[in-house]
Design a protein that fits this description.
By secondary structure, the chain is of the alpha+beta class. It contains 3 helices and 3 strands; from the N terminus they run E-E-E-H-H-H. The protein is globular and about 35 Å long.
Length: about 90
């Protein structure tokens, strides 16, 4: 089975950066989402080509977080709940 490569949703969104955080307004659902540094990093790099390990490496570089693969999976669950991912979780 090939590695999971999450892809962010890019359609019908307005994205504004505030320092290390992102504010994303969903134009379809009329709902705003504030993403912290880690979740913003995961969303920004979820291009459909990057694996979980790739995303974990980027998060570690950007934030210095520990247990980064666990943190990436948590961020993906949060993005899924906010309907900000284009690929379903496996």
């Amino acid at each position: 089975m090939p590695p999971f490569r999450p892809r962010k949703r890019e359609q019908a969104l307005r994205v504004e950066a505030f320092g290390d955080e992102l504010l994303i307004y969903d134009l379809d659902r009329h709902h705003a989402h504030s993403l912290n540094q880690v979740t913003a990093c995961v969303w920004q790099h979820a291009d459909g080509r990057s694996s979980i390990a790739d995303l974990a490496e980027r998060v570690a570089e950007a934030s210095g977080a520990d247990h980064v693969e666990t943190v990436v999976w948590q961020a993906l669950r949060e993005l899924d709940a906010a309907a900000l991912r284009a690929t379903p979780l496996p």
